[in-house]
Amino acid sequence: MVSTFAYKPGDHEAEKASNGYLMSLIAVIAGLPLPIINLIATFIFYLGNRKGTYFVRWHCTQALLSQFSLLAMNSVGFWWTVSIVFKDVEISNQYISYMITVFLFNLIEFIATIYTAIQTRKGIHISWWFYGDLTNAIVRK
């Protein structure tokens, strides 16, 4: 959902806000098998920018919040897969269904993150469903 801020962010602000989303993408590529890597990298970037302008803080917070959902879903999938590989657990229809769901959720989040990073870099405010409202409740002007 595209919405507007009362002011047009400068290039420096737009770049920092966009980098909040890019940080999570880079972390996905670097730490793919370990779901916590994305969250840690995004959290560190958030900490470095939490005292920035409202636009930067808002987008760093939204990027961070989205990583919590990914962490939860990916962790379950990761540990379920580990239990199948190292224990006497069979692959079930539930496992396959869950892994397809996790894959689709990650793919949608990946595409949305790229789109949001591009739009935010242009100074356009993108508010994600659920995370945008939660970010509004957390980040104060």
UniProtKB/TrEMBL annotation:
Membrane topology term: Multi-pass membrane protein
Q: Tell me which domain of life the UniProt entry assigns to the organism this sequence originates from.
A: Bacteria
Metal-binding keyword on record: no
Which key words are in the record? Membrane, Transmembrane, Transmembrane helix
Check the record and name the InterPro entries matching this protein: MamF_MmsF
| Compartment(s) where it occurs, according to its Swiss-Prot or TrEMBL record | Membrane
The record lists the membrane-crossing segments as 20-47, 68-86, 98-118
Protein name (record): DUF4870 domain-containing protein
Organism equals: Candidatus Opimibacter skivensis
Organism lineage string: Bacteria, Pseudomonadati, Bacteroidota, Saprospiria, Saprospirales
